[in-house]
Amino acid sequence: MGRDADDDGTVVTPSAEFPPLRPDEVDTLGRIGERWRAPRPPDGLPVDPTLDRYRERPTAGRFGRLAPIELFAVPPPQPAGLARAAGELVATEPANLPRSRPARALSRLRRVVLGPPLRSSAVLYERMRKLIALPILSSDLLSSVAYGPEAMLTVLVLAGGGALGLSLPLAGVLVVLMVAVGLSYRQTIPAYPHGAGSYIVASDNLGAMAGLTAAAGLMLDYVLTVAVSVAAGVHAVTSALPGLTPFTVPLGVLVIAVLLAGNLRGVRTAGNIFVLPTYAFVVAVLALLVVGWGRAAGRGFAPVPPPAVPAAEGLGLLLVLRAFASGAVSMTGIEAVSNAVPAFKPTEWRNARTTLGWMVAMLVVLFAGLTVLIHLDGLVPRPEETLLSQLGRLTFPTGPWYALLQAATALILLLAANTAFNDFPRLLFFMARDGHAPRRFLHMGDRLAFSNGLLALSVAAALVFVVFGGHTESLIPLYAVGVFLAFTLSQAGMVVHWRRRPGRGSRRRLALNALGATMSGLVLLTAAAAKFAQGAWLVVVAVPLLVLLFHRIHRHYATLHRALALRPPPVGPAPAEAAEGEELPQQVRHLVVVPVARLNRASLRALAYAASLGQPTLAVHIAPEDVEADRFREQWRAWGSHVRLETIVSPYRAVIGPLAHYLEALHAAGPELTLTVIVPEVVQRRRWHRPLHSRAEQRLRAALRPLPQVVVTSVPVHLTG
Amino acid sequence: MGRDADDDGTVVTPSAEFPPLRPDEVDTLGRIGERWRAPRPPDGLPVDPTLDRYRERPTAGRFGRLAPIELFAVPPPQPAGLARAAGELVATEPANLPRSRPARALSRLRRVVLGPPLRSSAVLYERMRKLIALPILSSDLLSSVAYGPEAMLTVLVLAGGGALGLSLPLAGVLVVLMVAVGLSYRQTIPAYPHGAGSYIVASDNLGAMAGLTAAAGLMLDYVLTVAVSVAAGVHAVTSALPGLTPFTVPLGVLVIAVLLAGNLRGVRTAGNIFVLPTYAFVVAVLALLVVGWGRAAGRGFAPVPPPAVPAAEGLGLLLVLRAFASGAVSMTGIEAVSNAVPAFKPTEWRNARTTLGWMVAMLVVLFAGLTVLIHLDGLVPRPEETLLSQLGRLTFPTGPWYALLQAATALILLLAANTAFNDFPRLLFFMARDGHAPRRFLHMGDRLAFSNGLLALSVAAALVFVVFGGHTESLIPLYAVGVFLAFTLSQAGMVVHWRRRPGRGSRRRLALNALGATMSGLVLLTAAAAKFAQGAWLVVVAVPLLVLLFHRIHRHYATLHRALALRPPPVGPAPAEAAEGEELPQQVRHLVVVPVARLNRASLRALAYAASLGQPTLAVHIAPEDVEADRFREQWRAWGSHVRLETIVSPYRAVIGPLAHYLEALHAAGPELTLTVIVPEVVQRRRWHRPLHSRAEQRLRAALRPLPQVVVTSVPVHLTG
């Protein structure tokens, strides 16, 4: 289950669910095959498995009611002109449709909402241009500018209006941090061209536990990002339209559902939806900066003195650190690009690196510009109005600009959630491939999106949203701990990476990464400590629990992998009994058992099927009392006693228990036997008919499941008469 | 599905789940058997199906971990000394225990609460003596005396105090009605010695619809009896201990659960629990009558004039009829004996008839005695105190007698519910045997009680109780409609019965039944009309709906029965193709299909199992893209290509859909083939591991279920390594 940094282990592919065998496994397979003896060679198949496709085009009506639809096709010839293997068919689109009518209708509706399915071969083309990638990946990062400076000033103002001046040096440090982290990720992207998420970088360089810790932090952060962003966005809407306030929770869930649907459609389409609002926000804030700085230049950059605010706390180191940590939330989302490298158009890493550069540059301009402008205008955080709104009102006293700014802010907050929709499923994909998350997160849905991961994120975020009733003020303190945990581990991992691979410029890179790791670690510690009581403890508790869960999942898959691994057959002539190697056909000794409750069409079908296998067969009847047992034996004789019958009187009227115990006793008497239990299954057409039947077949199956070498065969009987 | 009145169709037997074949069905079976040809005769079984039991006692340790427990035994020799059929074993008690440890613990707990399981042969001995049957079956009937007279007077007093004198003639008419209905049921019991419930009598003589209508009425009444009695009983308790009032709903549910547990233990034990309170109630009321009448005799039976009450309504015919109908609730429960005839000791019908006689006599004495005594003492119904309580306070001014009377009344009201527990499951049993109710109501639990019917009644009554919050005043108006519907249909049925079977005394009996039917019918109409607005409309709506449901269930079972009925094979030599008769082994043509996702231990086991069957075999692999398909074929060749492989590229990455469609296409190409799909099933030991797997096996099974002639075989792979 280990992963090598040198293989193509970071490629996202639809075949990830089918990992190739290692050379030694192929070798074992060959040795098993050498000893394989079927009891008699099958003399051809009674039907052509290629459905006659290779001979000629099938005539209409040939396949009964399926004829008008071409469900399977012969694969097209290879570009090099090589003949394809004969035993291959390609399933066409209709072959994916379910058979039942309601399921078909659902499938069509799904197609209308999500678009037609995409072929696996389309996975390469579903890539993002830089101008599209920028808004998709940066909405989380840039939207933080809407609340980051304010979060910092809100802490500083606790020490009185005079302390607000500290915002300028703190902003300077934060800009250094942003540039350092940005530079650090610039180094990481080419080193991990197939996706440089913190999970992968930390796993590779610091070990699985560090990787899982980073993953747990990121996952919590993604869920919180969606919940918080949606809450903030919905709050902006309900502030404008107070009549909608009682519908906060359904509105939020609706927004999450729309985001889910948009992302299930696939990457490019999702991008198209999100391009405009992000650029609108950037343009609006840039306009704000230009006009604001222009006015400040008009008065010679003389800062307006802020109104006097009484100090609530002394100005200590802890307060400054808390302000720094709060300001650092402006950086959440910076890792989005490095996670999404494979979603870029080729050359992926180069385009990703350029996009990251633009993003960090924009972040620095917006963040620094806003912080300084707030200082110049002498603004103070007020609980009833955001600083951005104050700034907008001051800068654009008239005209539509203020409204536009607020609308763009609300919209980008809603869309910031989308970054999480991009990264969360991809993270789960990588984790699942290493066996740290359920395998189903490997599966690419019919739109080539990781449907299961998207669904998991939506459900988790909606749950958080509903549990907190859309009042996510209490969630914000939890917000930055997870992401800075991941930043720190990722950059520390890069330090190890450069130390292990010395080369041109690796010393400079190591220094950059070390600086970034140290600063991120400081922010992490400050955030965890300063916000511990307000909710950060939840993250501190949840991260180890998640790591434990991932670890347990990994252990289960490892056990499974070992148990299902092929074992070479023993050396020497094929032994008569099953050895510790794989079972071979010539070693299987059959006993077919047919439980018969009453003699009717269904049980005779099962008996006919059993007898037609030509293996030793035994019928078993469970009778509630002697009278019934005698009566049944009489019927059996009337039929002709074609199969040996064993009657078990169950004086306590239980059926499944005695039958299961009897099969177990048979197995104990002949441990080398494979018991095939053949059960007729009457297929109900209507769902409401099911409670009218005893489900004996299902209960028997469940009771027999733990028994070794007991094979259960269901012979369907359809109600047509 | 028809039932003949002359067969033993009214016997309650544990074998009812296994109805015997009709002679023509046995004949068909023989003709099918004549044409039966297995492909090669099995040369003996590889293991002795009697587990060597007939040869010698097994030595310890022979059956592995099961050795210490003798799970199966040889049946004891028949009393006549006849040798038993060799192919029979008897499951001992431990063979009923489930295998898994939590299920075993649950099973033991269940045994502690409900007692050890009872053998089917014990069904004859689990019978009631008359002195035990009387309290069990009469608690419903006699408890009605506690509210019957009051219900009548409450209506009469609406026309003023002067109208109360009408209670004497009305009581006289009711006594006539009681005696008439009692005599009527006395005629019914010997005519239907195996249970003379209204459902059976009405079905037999008036047709299935009348029987179902009676059954629907009775079922509603049983559920209401439980809910109302428990509510009244709990109310009596909470009146004495007001602190318990907030716990009305949980208390009621607890009482229902205790009643359920008592009845699941079985008839005799349940009787023992209920003997004392019923006799205590009878003794207390008799003492009341003796003392009260003695005092009245002391004053020369001069009635005390009742206090003046102003009239609210005029004294019209409708009011008198309403009073009559209200008084008639005293008769609910009179049908209990005739339903329970088979639960009596032999000779059942004679003991039942005697018990019914005693019951009606007691009812008449208590009802008439109380009504006249109330008149003599000049008592008037008051909302804050029951008439019985007023009478007790007046008759026993000092001493413990009053308290004893009230306690016995509360207790018998609680226990009245028990009559419903006796009759409801039995009614469902008869309906299930006719195919009018789900088959599972035929099953006798391990204590020989109809566990499923008891459970259904408890759940329904608890639901009604919870929905109405234990305030069942609003349920009382619904109460009598159902039962008088059943009375009327049952007695009308007996009229038809005597007309069809003229004989000695049949004219007298017909007249008695006709009188009873007419009077019951009048009460029914009066009750339905007078109480329509107060809730009786619910019953008027529910009865036809229930009848429709029973009818639909019957239709489904009839369809099933027809579909599963044996069809004779066509005359002439055995045809090569499947004809419209039953399928025979020589007609089954196999194609074994093994879907293989990856080559590991599990899929190789499935392949080995498939190959060992010696039938034509085809492996199918579904690949998400060409690359993966090529890789898989390479591995297949490395293994040795022992089985023909067909690869299906599914470009939209769905697996189940294309596979199901492919199997359907194969079936269309060879309609005579039986496709056996062999799927490995990895058995998870822990429940929490299940979400980590895709459940492809289950989903495939569900997708294949609608396909004809597609057999699904699960080869279990247990995780041991």
Automatic annotation (TrEMBL), chains A, B:
Topological relation to the membrane, as annotated: Multi-pass membrane protein
UniProt key word Transmembrane: yes
Keywords, sorted A to Z: Membrane, Transmembrane, Transmembrane helix
The protein's name: Amino acid/polyamine/organocation transporter, APC superfamily (TC 2.A.3)
Pfam family, one: AA_permease_2
One Gene Ontology term of the molecular function aspect: transmembrane transporter activity
Residues covered by region (Disordered): 1-53
Cell location: Membrane
UniProt cross-references to Gene3D superfamilies, sorted A to Z: Amino acid/polyamine transporter I (1.20.1740.10)
A GO CC annotation given for this chain: membrane
Keyword Methyltransferase annotated: no
Transmembrane portions of the chain: 131-149, 155-185, 206-234, 240-261, 273-294, 314-334, 355-376, 401-421, 448-470, 476-498, 510-530, 536-553
Organism per entry: Micromonospora mirobrigensis
Coiled-coil intervals, chain numbering: none
